[in-house]
Amino acid sequence: MLIGIDVAAKAFHNMTSQGMRMGGQMRKAGAAGAALVGLLLTVRAAGAGDASAPPLVHAPAVTAVAQPANAALTSLPVAPKPAPSPLAYAAPNPSASAGGSAAAPKADPATLAVLTPPRPPVNASAGGGPAANAVKPGMRLYLRDPMSRTTDPYNWVVRAWKSRHLLEVDYRGYPYKDYQAVFGRSHFGGPKEFEGDRRTPEGAYLIVSKHRSARFRWFMKINYPNANDQANYARMRADGDLPRGIGEGGSVGIHGTDEPVLNLGDVDWTTGCISVENSDITELERLLPIGTLVIIKP
What we know:
Elements: H1 2-47, H2 69-73, H3 94-99, H4 109-115, H5 137-143, E1 156-161, E2 166-171, E3 174-180, E4 203-213, E5 217-222, H6 227-238, E6 253-255, H7 260-264, E7 274-275, H8 278-287, E8 293-297
């Protein structure tokens, strides 16, 4: 019995000694492993400074507690939200109306008046449209006078400006409309003096007839030569300033064009008449009755 107890005691002693030796070895192995891990981390950190250098070893995965996203964002600067514009409340919210929720508050009319300045009026002469196309006072009178507007020649006055390539039409003393015009192609200025000088007369004349023209669409003849032209012609004839066989001339009037390009370019090409665009001569023939005063100026 005693022998069995002694054997058991020796066996327990041997097992205890062996366990202590194994624990010491495990502690030493643990310390060595920790030193190796620290060395590998140091080498990896040094290699991270050179992006081209590949890592020598793969360090064991280190589990770290990730910081929450909200905590990371708290360190960043946050831009303040812009204040909502009062105009945002001017119209109801479509989604709110569709969902049946309460309507958005309405904007104060005084606030909207301050935030929305009035639109300036459109000025025709400042780029809103050609001033020549504006309705003039004479045209307003014409539109209100449907009875005698095209039958009474005293309602109308035509002023032709040779140097300005312009035909001004007045109705009852007020401007009605302006038309582009070209005149005689003479290289010499002044009024028409005799037949063939290619000048446009200057002075006061009357429209004495109107008829269709195959070349110019309409021809409105004026009473050239008038009394002043006849007196001037007689004086030149008496002074010997005119060659034999040269008369006073005639058949001068206002007509359309068969050279629209020259009219657009303000090129004087007629032999003494006044030429306007074909659409304009159609309009003028309809407006101006026989007997209308035509004043031609330099």
